[in-house]
Amino acid sequence: MGIIGKRVAYYPGCSLEGASRAYDVSTRIVAKELGLELDYLEDYNCCGAMESKNVTFMGTMLLNARNMSLALKRGHKVIVAPCNGCSFSLQRAEYFLETDRKVFEKVNELLKEGDVDPLDEIPHTYHLLEWLYNEAGPQKVKERTVKPLKGLKVANYYGCLYTRPHFYARTYAHAGGNGEERPRKRETADDDEHPFYMNELLEAAGAESVYFEPMHTQCCGGPHSLSDEDVSKKFVMMILQTAKRNGANIIATECPLCHASLEMYRYRLMLEGVEDVDVPAAYFTQLLGLAFGYSVDDVKLKDNLSDPIPVLRGLGIA
Amino acid sequence: MPIHERSLIESERVLRKERLVIDGIDVSGDWNLIILPRTVEDYDLDFAKEIMESPDGKTIQQCYQCSYCTASCPVHNYWDDRYNPRHFIYLARLGMVDELQKRVDVMWRCVSCHKCTHRCPKGVLVEDVLKVILRAMYKRGLIGDYPSKKFDQFFTESVLEYGRIEDGELLFGWMEKQGYKIKKDPILRKPIPFFSDIPKWLKDMVSKPIKEGNIGFLMLNAKHMLFHPRTKEWNKFKQVLRKVMEEEGALAKGG
Predict the structure, then answer these.
(1) Predicted ipTM?
(2) CB under 8 Å to A149, separation ≥6 — which residues?
(3) pTM for this one?
(4) Which among B170, B209, B244 is the nearest to A58, CB-wise?
(5) How far apart are CA A45 and CA A116, in angstroms?
(6) What's the gap in Å between the CA of A253 and the closest CA on chain B?
(7) Where does the pLDDT of residue B190 fall: very low under 50, low under 70, confident under 90, or very high at 90 and above?
(8) Do B80 and B62 fall within a single domain?
(9) In a domain, B255, yes or no
(10) At B228, is the pLDDT very low, low, confident or very high (cuts 50, 70, 90)?
């Protein structure tokens, strides 16, 4: 393999350095075990997530262009982001900078004004999962596994922005519309409607994936999880109940926002006495870390508010 | 309501009579439904133009109203079928801002899942277009401070100030905006979750790491709440960012 590169710029994003540190720590562990190198992007700024793009277009472009400029300065042409929101934002900026000359020129002009090196090229952003799958793959995970996740039935939850929209995530060649001459599909990209990279990685580590379509890419409420509680609650309920009723005993996540939303509403739904919502959530890197022989404390499983430890202990994994 | 254009006919325009005789001929029956014509004069073509001129809204021109976006939309399917992206695009292009205004209670509900954009056969960036429509409506005062707008503004201004966000600030700051009484320490004015009047679920969530003695987690988050994480080389860039946002009219009114 080796299409993306073994040494990449690592853009953790604000969340991973705060409440979701478990994802950060376990990501580093997994990358190290698989012989890959993450070069921390020093002094990065927030990507603007799903919020600032609704407020300001050019401001959001600038936020992301600054991060791209930092990566180029460190000699990287590839950025890896473990968060769906971050990788989406960077990829969105990538799309507009590549397809709209005017935006590109304006952004460079403003970067110079703000004492940031202008972009002479545009680095590409990959989601952590896509990178791990293509650079290491299930085979390598299998070789590394010392403590298989035997008996663990996983519902692999990908969330929205890992494969969508194809303009940004580049999951398939563009079918119609104007202003796009060349197909932007990426060879390394996951399937757009039926992603399977996480399934395969966790299966390689000994887990069993349950049938989870179409909820594997259903929205968790995302950017509205605080501002529109009713909708978010209903969406999370649908996701959790589908997982539970399809026999899952854990949900594997790959985005700190989805993870937080699932855990928060899981607890609230349980307080309200809703049935079949008690499936705990863990980052897929935490599960891989356990399979590679790391302890519960190493992968910070205690940080998970939904407390997956009893389930894992019951199966003799943790 | 599968055909949303039906909603453009207000109910008082629909006439249906039990018995109706016109020129001596009895036309009673179910088919004698009469729709009074409606002439739209106050359409606002500048509205559509504004959307087409923004880089993230220009694909609105490519829409051919197939409704694949609406068929994919989880808000439409699982929450409220009055939320209809295709219809909003239709109204925006016609410049029927008064009809858009009648739908402000659902228009902001988009959860940004991007199924619409992903599946659009014509390459319309539907999600972006809808957000541009909302932005244009907000600018004209057609829509007030809807909940997610407040959150977006709150979030963006935190990014502008520090370069990074902090989960605790967002969560408790938002709860405070919702009317919960958040207790703050007298010196740094930072929230103290345990003495605040917050819902049970949040209290339980905050006390979980304490109960389990997860000291590393507590220390990290306490540190971040006390000393907001920030980007170091930010000041110069922040000024540029502020300028850009001012030009776009993106800063909070009066702030």
Answers:
(1) 0.93
(2) A202, A205, A206, A207, A287, A290, A291, A315, A317
(3) 0.94
(4) B244
(5) 13
(6) 16
(7) confident
(8) yes
(9) no
(10) very high
